[in-house]
C-alpha cells in the first residue's frame, strides 16, 4: 500500500497550503490594518480575510462538474498554480485592491484543493486504509497552520514586520505542490475507468497497489459506473460440496451454485438461503431491534451496521474468510490480452466485440470478471458439462495455472468478493430467457463456528467440523450489461464497452436517483451541522477567550507584545491538535467514522457548556482561567478527531463515480456558505446575546448533530466505494417504502 500512501501524502499538501494561508492572514492582518489605516474600516478588513472564502465558493460551484469532465489531476495542478500566483501577487500588493484580487485568486486555489483532494484520495486508497489516508488533509492543514504561525511569530518579533513577505512565502511551498501534481500524482483510476481508459487505469492501479494482478479491483471500478438499478439482498451458505448435506431434499439441486477452487477436483457449493440474512431482514422489514426506538433510525444506518457487527473484534482491517474463498471467483486467462479493453486500442470489430458467457443446459453460473473480449468469449467446449440440473462454472486450464494456484483473487476489500451470475430459463413462450447479475458477497460468520445459529435453516444440515461460510450478497444488474444486444448475443450476456458508457457522460437525472438523493441528504446535512457547531467562532475568539482567562496577559508580562502573544497562543493551540488528529487517523479504520462522531460530539457539547458557565458565573480568576483554557483546548482536540475531518471523508465516499464530482461540489458549497454565514453573523450575535449566548447556540447545534449522526450517518469503514453506494440505493428504497 506504499504507493497509495505516498500519493495521498503528496495530494494533501494542497490542504497544508490552505492551513498555511489561514494562519498567515490571521497574523498578517494585524499589520495590514496599520499600513492601510483600516482601523476605522472594519468592512475592508473583514473583506481581506473573507475574500478567500468568496473565491472558494465561486470556484466550487463548477469544480465538481469540471473534474468529472477533465479529471481530478488537472484540477489539482490548476490549484497549485493558483496558490503560486496568489503568493506572488500578495508579495507585490501595492494597495488594498490588488491585495483583494490576490486573496480572491488564493480562494480559487483553496476551493479546488478542499473540494477535490478528499475525492482524489478516496478514489485512490485501498478500502482498508481509506479513512486513515483521508484524515491526512486534516493533519496537513493543521500542520500548515502551526508552521505558518511559527513563521509569523518569528517575523512579528522583528523591528518592522513585513506582512507582504509573510503572505508571499506561500508561493514557495506551492512550487513543491506544483511539481508533485505534475510529475508524481497520477490520474484517479476510477475516473479513467469512467472514461473507458482501461489500460491507463490498470497501470496506475498496479503502481498504487504494488502488484501485477489488479483485475479484481479493476472489475469493481467498472461496476461502479452504474447509477441506480434494482438491487436485492440474498444469502448463501458456502462450503465444500461434499459437506453441505441436504437430507430432506428441500432445496433442489438446480439452486446450487458450484464454485471451483484452486485445486483440481476441489469444489465449493453456494446454496441460497431464504430469509435468514440480517441484511435481508433489514431490507424487507426495515427494522432491527434498535429501530424500534422512539427515534426512528435510517434503514441505511442499520444496513451498514448489520455488516460491521459481524466481526466487531476485527474492525475492517482484514477478512477471516478461509484461504480458498478468495479463489472461488478467479480471473480466467488474465494475460496481456486484457489490455485490448482500452478504448484507444480496441475498436469495435463487428458483433464479436461484446462478450458472451453462459451456455449448455445449466441454469446458473458464477463467472470470473468480464474484463476482456478474449477472456469473456466462451466456446461451448470451454464450459463444464452440467451435473444433472445443477449449476456449473467454467473450469478449464486457464483458471488453474502455476501448479494449481489461482490466477487472481476477487477480493475487493473489507471482506467483500465480486462475482457474476448468468441465469437462463425457458420463458412462457418456450424461448430461452437470460438474466445477468452482478454479486457483491460478504461473509456473515466465522468458518466452522455458526452451526448453532443455523439449526433453523430450512433443509440445511451443516457438519459440526465443516468449513462453511454464511455470506450475504448484494445482487444487481451489471453496470455494462446491455439488454438491447441480447437478440444479437443469444448465447449469453452482452457487455457494452466502458468507453461507450463514458460517452454518455454524467446525467443530471442521476442526482435524483433514490440512493444518490439520500446520500446528498446525509452529506449536506453533516456539512451544515459541522459549520454551525462553532469551530469558526471558537477559532476566531480564541485569543479573546484566553485573554479574559489571563493567559495572554501572562505572556505579555514576559516581554512579548500583544500581537506576538496572540499569534503564539494560536500556534500552541494548533500544535495540540496534531496528536489528536494522529489518534483519529489510527482509529478511523478500526473504530470507524460513526463511532468517532458519536464519541467526540458529546465532548464538544460539554466543553461548550463549560465555556457558557465560565462566562456567566463569577468563579474567580484562577478557576475561570483553568476552565476556559481547558475547554478551548479540549474542544479543538475533539473537533479535529471527529467533526473536523469526517464530513469531508464521508462526502467523498457515499456518491457513485459518475456523479461524485458534482455531488461533492454540492456538499462543498454547503460548507463554504455555512462558513461565510457563521463568520459574518458572529459579530452581530455577539452584540445581541454575548459570548455566552453564542456558545449556547453552538452547544444546541452540536446536540442536534449528535441526533442526526445517530439516526442518519452510516458506518462506511473498510467498505469499497461501489458497495457503499449500493447500500445507499437499497436503504433509500426501503426508507421510501416505510
TrEMBL record:
TM spans (from-to): 43-62, 74-92, 98-121, 133-157, 163-185, 554-583, 595-617, 623-650, 662-682, 688-711
Q: Is the keyword Phosphoprotein assigned to this protein?
A: yes
* Protein source organism: Ensete ventricosum (Abyssinian banana)
Region forming the signal peptide: none
Domain Major facilitator superfamily (MFS) profile: start-end pairs: 7-717
- The residue ranges flagged as biased composition, category Acidic residues, are 341-354
One example GO MF annotation: transmembrane transporter activity
Membrane topology reported for the UniProt record: Multi-pass membrane protein
Stored Pfam families: Sugar_tr
The entry's keywords: Membrane, Phosphoprotein, Transmembrane, Transmembrane helix, Transport
Q: What is this protein called?
A: Major facilitator superfamily (MFS) profile domain-containing protein
Q: Which GO terms describe its cellular component?
A: plant-type vacuole membrane
* Region described as Disordered: spans on this chain: 334-406
Membership in a protein family:
Belongs to the major facilitator superfamily. Sugar transporter (TC 2.A.1.1) family.
Q: Give the subcellular location.
A: Vacuole membrane
For this UniProt entry, what is the primary localization, expressed as one broad class?
A: membrane
Reactions mediated catalytically: sucrose(out) + H(+)(in) = sucrose(in) + H(+)(out); D-glucose(out) + H(+)(in) = D-glucose(in) + H(+)(out)
The cross-references to InterPro entries, in alphabetical order and at most eight, read:
MFS_dom (IPR020846), MFS_sugar_transport-like (IPR005828), MFS_trans_sf (IPR036259), Myo-inositol_Transporter (IPR050814), Sugar/inositol_transpt (IPR003663), Sugar_transporter_CS (IPR005829)
